[in-house]
Amino acid sequence: MDVVTLRLGGELMAIPAECLREILEPVPVTRVPQAGNFIGGLINVRGVVVPLADLRVTFGMTLTEATPDTRMLVLELPIAGDEIVVAILADKVHDVTGLDPSTLEPIPPVGTRWPPDFVRGIGKWQGGFMILPDLERIFTQGAQKGSLSAVAEEGV
Amino acid sequence: MDEEIGGLFRQEAAELMASLERGLLDLERAPKDRAIIDAVFRDLHTIKGSGAMFGFAALARFVHEFESVFDNLRQGTHGVDQAVIAVALRSCDHIGRLIEAPEGAEAASAELLDALRLAASGETAAAPPPGWSLVFRLGRQVLRLGGNPRLLLAELAELGAADIRARLAAIPALDALDPQDCCTGWQASLPATVPQTAIEDIFLFYRDDMQFNLQDAASAPDLPAAAQPPAEAPAPPVPAPSDPVPVPDPAVAPPAPVREAPAAAPANPPVAETMRVETGRLDELMDRVGELVIAEARLSALAQRFGDPSLLAVTEDIQRLSSGMRNATMSIRMVPIGSIMGRFRRLMRDLSQTLGKPIAFTTGGEDTELDKTVIELLADPLVHILRNSADHGLESAEARRAAGKPETGSIELAAAYSGAEVLITVRDDGRGLDAEAIRSQAIARNMITADAQLSQSETFRLIFEPGFSTAKKVTELSGRGVGLDVVKRTIETLRGQIDLASEPGKGATVTLRLPLTLAIVDGLQIEVGGENYTFPLAAVEECVELPPEFETEGRSSSFLNIRGGLVPFLRLRTLFAIREPVPPFQKVVIVSAGGQRIGLVVDRIVGNNQTVIKQLSRLHAHLKCFSGATILGDGSVALILDVPQLVSLGRAQEDRLRDQHGERAA
């Protein structure tokens, strides 16, 4: 399969190219109050309002300021039966490369700080490692967590 | 093409059946009204005519008999009574089944017809007169010569022909078939009252080259066998390949009613000309208008920046045009709520009988218009609420008599505009809600803790939670605790709200508050801490300056004195966790929803603009304070504030404050 490689929070990540719709230079982000850090913004992608997510929150990485290399990737993901368009941040986008799914290795149970649920596997690229995040699961949980926290808020 | 035409017929038939049902229910109230009987007759006639055209033979046969019964009623041999209406309503349902599954449903036809005849005329029910039996086959060349069998069939149907069937035996195999040859024959039966010459006249121009066999059915005892030759398939619509005209033309579908118009004149008010359009196209139009409005906002921002007078003039023109276009487009999507109220009358009638409670059901505000999408989604929740009122709300006739109330319970369904919202109320005069019973039930089901402090309206709202039911026993209709939570969910997806009010012994009122539209609104743009938000303008009552004593937070009281009225207020800055420093001269936007007002403190009021509502994605659907997002003139995104939600937040705060005061006083 083809993947897009990108750098985020000092790590190399790979996103399946089939779910990538486009790559944008950073556009103004509208903060969404009460939505939390993970999907905390909205952007305008040619007239369509698209939620912007920051995977660094999911993986517990340090949040850094945007650089000239920062990009927004617009993705189309199947979440709970629907195709949902979301954008994610990347510190730098490298290129598209072929990846043999059979070479993917599971995440080692010890010695990593990644939540294992959110990683589909580890691949090799240019002598280094790259993480394949499980975007479907990340966003499904993100949506659920959001509604749970809203319920908790109401309960107060 | 068969599918397309069949679909057209189904659509038309559904409308006719709704009209028929309405007519029958009207007739129940005014049994002597000739105009209504005529209207019912007309509906039946049209269903029969188009049914026969489209090959629904079983349907046509059934409706023909149904129609004969009403014809007798129309002739005044026997009045319309409850019994007739009851069977007629069942027959109306049967028509629906005959359209959906003619094979399975036809068995019940005879039984219903017998019941119908019995109810309508008792002793006078002689067998229908035998009538004519007609078999004909047009010349092979007829299509090439410009003949149109469809018109012939329409004319036959107009004479009262039933059971029109195509005879397909002579059609050759496909490879030998010349589509311009007419190989189909037809057969039909006509009432005896039709003069022979009238039938023959129809074929005046075809007689030279056709087979034509008209027999008195009485003298042709073998008709049943001839009418249903086992080898022949049920007649399809006029065979497509041989049709010289390209067909999908809805105007052809209802042949019968056209000439009936003069008879209809006294009963029907003049109807505006209409045309059916796919909803998808309307949605597309709305999207385009939305984009236009956004582009217009950008243009207007540019024009302001350059300040060129001619550019400003053009911008103003375009603003006016786009706002006019927006209104026109939206009005296309608006449907009066009366369009779904009709079916509730039937529901209440049936409920009244099932429950054995006399119910007077009244409706009001049928003209109130809502977006089509909203109307469609609203039907099911209303059914639940009405059922609930009839089943739980209203007492039995004996209990009502004992309580000194009229035996007939009343349920009222009404709709009305209120600012940017439409209020739909269901009011009954039954026993009302029992707050204590609801509370103990909720505690028993672990929905609240035993010491929970709930206001009365909060307690009432518990009945909309999943799994809740106070009914002592489960009836067929309600009591399973399923239903009202569905209502709540649906109304919430529509960004609406439910309110409940009740007076013990006097009745309960359920109020649904729904936004007028889901697409474009006039908005008031405001700014807090450098962030832009938009209020729906229709919900905004006024804007005032924040009195200096409230500049900073920390005062216990958060009420403003607006011309003598106390209005609670919320700080958007606090609500949205904005840390920017507080500027001087903050403003308060006073908004209202459901008759309640609250103030919202903002930094600056930017101005009003047309706002295209973009739904928030599922990932943000849980956010309560926003009803959507929009794109501003500079291309950035602004969130649209959900006024009803904010108002209820403000009210909750007010309730809390009041409770605190109450406790202190106690």
UniProtKB/TrEMBL annotation, chain A:
Signal peptide: none annotated. GO terms for cellular component: cytosol. Residues 1-144 form the CheW-like domain. One of its GO terms (biological process) is chemotaxis. This is Chemotaxis protein CheW. SMART domains: CheW. Transmembrane segments: none annotated.
Automatic annotation (TrEMBL), chain B:
Transmembrane segments: none annotated. Residues 221-272 are annotated as: Disordered. Gene3D superfamilies: Histidine kinase CheA-like, homodimeric domain, Histidine kinase-like ATPase, C-terminal domain, HPT domain, SH3 Domains. Residues 520-652 form the CheW-like domain. InterPro entries: Bact_Chemotaxis_CheA, CheA-like_dim, CheA-like_homodim_sf, CheW-like_dom_sf, CheW-lke_dom, HATPase_C_sf, HATPase_dom, His_kinase_dom. It catalyses: ATP + protein L-histidine = ADP + protein N-phospho-L-histidine. Keywords: ATP-binding, Chemotaxis, Kinase, Nucleotide-binding, Phosphoprotein, Transferase, Two-component regulatory system. The keyword Nucleotide-binding applies. The modification Phosphohistidine is found at residue 45. Residues 221-230, 258-272 have a biased composition (Low complexity). SUPFAM superfamilies: ATPase domain of HSP90 chaperone/DNA topoisomerase II/histidine kinase, CheW-like, Histidine-containing phosphotransfer domain, HPT domain, Homodimeric domain of signal transducing histidine kinase. Its EC number is 2.7.13.3. Involved in the transmission of sensory signals from the chemoreceptors to the flagellar motors. CheA is autophosphorylated; it can transfer its phosphate group to either CheB or CheY. This is Chemotaxis protein CheA.
